[in-house]
Amino acid sequence: QVQLVQSGGGLVQTGGSLTLSCVASGIVGRIKTMAWYRQAPGKQRELVASITSDDTTTYTDSVKGRFTISRDNAKNTVYLQMNSLKPEDTAVYYCFVSATFGINYWGQGTQVTVSS
Along the 116 residues of the chain, how does pLDDT read in single tens digits? Predict the structure, then answer.
């Protein structure tokens, strides 16, 4: 059974930090890209950051310099270190994994709320 279990969300004040984690298990094939998306109320889900199997990273412009994505392949885990958080970072954050055979997986989502 495939599971992406997220942890680490919560409530933080402006300027604070949070770290999100996502552990993948039961994945069929090899994990390729791992990523974090977010969806704020009334908005479309957007890609926040991604990391490929060779550790190439990408970030949406609004988080560059503040967020860091990383992965531990031995643990099938992806992290998102979020610093200098702003109220506009408030959203539900989703872990995403793409694997061989073109199969994609999503985490259950975790709420991040940044108070002003």
Answer: 888 999 999 999 999 999 999 999 998 889 999 999 999 999 999 999 999 999 999 999 999 999 999 999 999 999 999 999 999 999 999 999 999 888 999 999 999 999 99
- Burial (CB count <10 Å: 0-12, 13-18, 19+), residue 70: middle
Type of residue numbered 80: L
Residue at 111: amino acid letter: Q
**101 CB burial (10 A radius; 0-12, 13-18, 19+):** exposed
Q: Could you identify the residue written with the tokens 């992806």?
A: 78
The answer to whether the beta carbons of residues 36 and 48 sit under 8 Å apart is yes
